[in-house]
Amino acid sequence: MNIFDQNKVCKYCMDEIKPCKDEGLQCFECNQMVHLRCLKRGSVPGGLHGDVFFTYKCTECSASGVEVFIRNKTSWMQIIVLVLYHLREKRPGLARRGFFHWRHHVASFIDKNWDIIFPPDTKMKKKWRGTIAGTLSHFNPFIFVSGTSIFNEPAWWTLKYTSLSPDVITHIHAEMINEKGVLKSKKLKVPSDAELFGKVLTLCVDDQEYLQTFIVNTTQVDIKDDYEKVPVVKKVVRTKRKGPTNSLSNPKKLFKAGTASLDIPIELITEPEEKLQTHPTCTKKEQETERTENIKLYDPFCHYNTSLNKLAYLRGTSLYTKLTGGIRQEPFLSPYSEIYLKPYIRRDTEIFPPWLKLMAEIQLTVNAKYDSEYELPPRAPLDYTYVQPEHIPAINSLCNQFFWPGIDLTDSLKYPDFSCVVLYKRLIVGFAFLVPDVSHTENYMSFCFTRPGWRNCGIGRFMVYHLIQTSLGKDITLNVSINNPALFLYQKFGFKVEKVVLDFYDKYLICDYNDKSKHAFFCRLER
Ligand SMILES: [Zn+2]
Ligand SMILES: [Zn+2]
């Protein structure tokens, strides 16, 4: 299969197959191409963006009449490029200034989608996470770019060439290895991988649009100096095209000039002037458009919405469903991150909430009358889970009872990653929610609640801890009533009071907000 061949058209729609824009798979029987979007099954198995690492047989060639996809053996470099490419396109909101955390985002995505990414029966080697870290460093800075200088933490990574698809990067890398072999056999000086990759790239791709390198959105560190240290970047960004070297005299073109459209993904920029000097082809306007297209922002107070219709609905719900919610035993797909979430965040059998203590005492006293040897049976665990549709009626009911009427948390099902629901058997004893992406750098904590009788034993603390863990790299903000003791918990986690919002709860309170003040502190945890 040769993607350098430019005159391929899709056998179904007859439109051109365009690398990085509108890619396709080639049937290994009839050799015809099919756009990923024109596949009969709708998308490739797993649905990863830009994933063409399959051996494919079209419906017409397949004996069963069903398309066949066999996962190819892929290198770790290819897999990481694929995951970063997918996350950039589909989950830009997870990123911190365009960078993804190698363990929490990349490794955890691979972990959850192992069966999709690898051929069947691929064994998970013990140190596979270490391999990811090693691979990222090995291909730094010509395929991957590290965010170390920005975050003072060597955990954040992104793709150097934001417009190149995993398939194209694979081909350029293969070409580079090939080139290395040629130079070696001719006993010529072999440049560094980074230099050679840059050379091959500029020879194979002569459209500047595709040579855009990642630009960080930063106000703290001027990364210009950082780029100066890397010779390849300068060449790629600033020179139109290098003259061919001996062995590269007949480069194959990846793209025809002029095939690029304007919607190339460019990283966000806040202060245009300095950065634009290093990357002359992007204008502020383009970046702004890109930003608004990439990230959907949520209203921080969307969980506070009240509606009278909802009130009527809630009255009709049975007491049983208002109090309880089940737990699913299988992992489920988050519509937000497209990651499989585990059924349990944590199962706790250690802590003894006051309510359970009271119940245990009653049980002991009553039973001791008849059996002096009586021992308490082991207690059921407290289960920390992600929010599920079956929890919503009970959570809404608790919110209506303890906060204000008409609250509806159905919206939280769109981003279950940012939730924590605590169950004792089927009884909901606590919950906490974040609204993600209320701004480009901020998630908002809308509710954190523990049932009376279950407080002061660490449930709230773990829920807040969990939510902080899910928002790596983003500030968390919240409003808390000025006489709510939960403020101390937030302060322990590093939340700082930023301002006082007078009458914050006024607009929500239909009846008295029990003993809480209607004024609120606006607090922020800076990351
Ligand atoms: Zn097509
Ligand atoms: Zn075919």
Describe this structure in words.
This protein has an 8-stranded mixed β-sheet with strand order 10-11-12-13-14-15-17-16, covered by helices on one side. The chain has helices at 76-90, 102-112, 114-117, 128-138, 148-151, 166-185, 193-204, 224-228, 231-238, 272-278, 284-294, 308-316, 319-323, 354-368, 392-402, 459-470, 486-492, and strands spanning 24-26, 33-35, 54-57, 68-71, 100-101, 144-146, 156-159, 332-333, 340-341, 346-348, 382-385, 419-424, 427-439, 442-450, 475-481, 496-501, 520-525. The chain folds into 3 domains: 1-72, Zinc/RING finger domain, C3HC4 (zinc finger) (Herpes Virus-1); 76-294, no CATH class; 302-525, Aminopeptidase (3-Layer(aba) Sandwich), CATH 3.40.630. Helix 1 (76-90) packs across helix 2 (102-112) and helix 7 (193-204) runs parallel beside helix 9 (231-238). By secondary structure, the chain is α+β, with helices and mostly antiparallel strands. The chain is built from 17 helices and 17 strands. It starts with 23 loop residues before the first strand and ends with a strand. Helices cover 32% and strands 15% of the residues. A hairpin with a 2-residue loop joins strand 12 and strand 13 (427-439). The model is unreliable at 218-247, 256-293 and 307-317 (pLDDT under 50). One zinc ion is lined by residues 27, 29-30, 32, 58, 60-61. Residues 27, 29-30, 32, 58, 60-61 line the site of one zinc ion. Keywords: Metal-binding, Zinc, Zinc-finger. InterPro entries: Acyl_CoA_acyltransferase, GNAT_dom, PKC_DAG/PE, Zinc_finger_PHD-type_CS. One of its GO terms (molecular function) is zinc ion binding. Residues 382-514 form the N-acetyltransferase domain. This is Cysteine-rich protein 2-binding protein.
